[in-house]
Amino acid sequence: MKGKHAFCGVVALLAIACGATTAPSPPSPCDRTYSVSSDFSSDERTALERANERWAEIAVAQFCLVDGDASRKTIRRIPYGSAEWQELSRSFGGLNILGVYRGADDSITIVDSLALDLFELVALHELGHAYGLGHVDAPAIMHAAIGTATDFTPNDMTECRRVGACPGLSQSDAPDADDALECALPGPHPSSVQAH
Questions:
Q1: 86 CB contacts (<8 Å, ≥6 apart)?
Q2: How far apart are alpha carbons 77 and 61 in whole angstroms?
């Protein structure tokens, strides 16, 4: 009997032959899955996917974006200028908030009235916070003012390695993601927030 159990431990695909009722499920390619709100336009959804793919090219962990609103980890939109947006703005000292990452519930909120290229930069920035990155000096995707860069810069990569989200340095000084509440602000980007 001892040999049979050793064989089962070595060859997981033969689990059924060793007495299991189902085969083990393959590991998920996703380290974290975000539920994307259904109220994003198809162009915005494509921009979210592009931003996620850009992080997948450099990050150690992989995020997956799925349709639906039921997950704890969500990416959603709010109307620019709405009561909810105004409350968010007040919580950041009255700043013109374009996006917010909340570490406590691992959620991302993006305002609804952005030009598509600016929307993608805000998504890229907020996904960076989800990976654990903080704000860095300009030029950078992770600068607090969106638009100082349209691609990852050395400042972004240094921060990404510092927190362990990208290959390189360890996560020794990484911030506690549960305490993170970060926002994206308008910057020198040529697209502007469209007023309602």
A1: none
A2: 24
Go through the domains of the chain in sequence order and give each one's CATH number.
1-26 (no CATH), 31-186 (3.40.390.10)
If 0-12 CB within 10 Å is exposed, 13-18 middle and 19+ buried, where does residue 15 land? middle
Q: Tens digit of pLDDT for each residue in 61-120?
A: 999 999 885 656 899 999 999 999 999 999 999 999 999 999 998 999 999 989 999 999
Q: What's the rounded Cα separation, in Å, for the pair 77 and 79? A: 7
Cα separation, 118 vs 123, in Å, equals 9
Helix segments in the chain, DSSP class H: 2-10, 42-58, 83-91, 116-130, 154-162
**With a threshold of 0.85, does the pTM exceed it?**
no
| Residue 166 to residue 59: CA distance in whole angstroms | 4
Helix and strand numbers (H, E) in the chain are 5, 7
Query: Which residue carries 């996917």 as its tokens?
Result: 49
Are 115 and 123 contacting, i.e. CB atoms less than 8 angstroms apart? no
**CA distances in angstroms from 129 to 111, 134, 135, 176, 186, listed in the order given:** 16, 6, 8, 11, 17
H/E segment holding residue 144: none
